[in-house]
Amino acid sequence: MAEEEKNKASTPREEEVNAVTESETIVWLLFLLGIDGICIVIDITGVGMAVAPFVQGAGTFSSALWFDKAKGDKGATKLQRQLIKYISNVAPLLPTLSIVFLIERYMHNHPEKFEKLNEALDKIPDTKTPVK
């Protein structure tokens, strides 16, 4: 009995293991700010709405897959959250990928604050869920 409690105390909580750390955030922000910078240059040239959303879409999708596979956040790749992220990519001259990543990081690290929002997003039909 005492050994089980000792093992419990020595193993980190699941939330702490799956939480996004500051070092991971810095690495992702360097990557995403690079993509945002490229997209801002594309926006300034005037062809931004034709090219930038596709470049930003690749960054959005890669961060969503990372949250899903590495951090176990199954909601990151759901259609509802992806649509919100892709719509935000339309805003020109803003580092939308970095802003969305920071918001998603906060949502991932503090799920108790976003329970109602996640419940509301789950009510939106997904492509995998048959409509009744």
Brief overview, please?
This protein has 132 residues and is mostly helical. Helices cover 70% and strands 0% of the residues. The chain has one domain.
Word description of this protein:
The chain is mainly α. The protein has one domain (21-123). The protein has seven helices and no strands. Helix 3 (22-45) runs antiparallel to helix 4, helix 3 (22-45) packs antiparallel against helix 6 (96-109) and helix 4 (48-69) packs parallel to helix 6. It is globular and about 40 Å long. The model is unreliable at 9-13 (pLDDT under 50).
- Stretches where pLDDT is under 50 for at least 5 consecutive residues are 9-13
List the domain count as a whole number. Answer: 1
The share of residues in extended strands comes to under 5%
Helix content: over 70%
Number of strands: 0
Instruction: Profile the largest sheet.
Output: none
What is the tally of helical segments?
7
State the end-to-end distance.
Answer: 50 Å
Name the structural class.
mainly alpha
Compressed to H and E, one letter per element, the order equals HHHHHHH
Q: Key features?
A:
132 residues; 7 helices; mainly alpha; globular
Write the layout of secondary structure elements.
Layout: H1 2-10, H2 14-18, H3 22-45, H4 48-69, H5 79-88, H6 96-109, H7 115-123
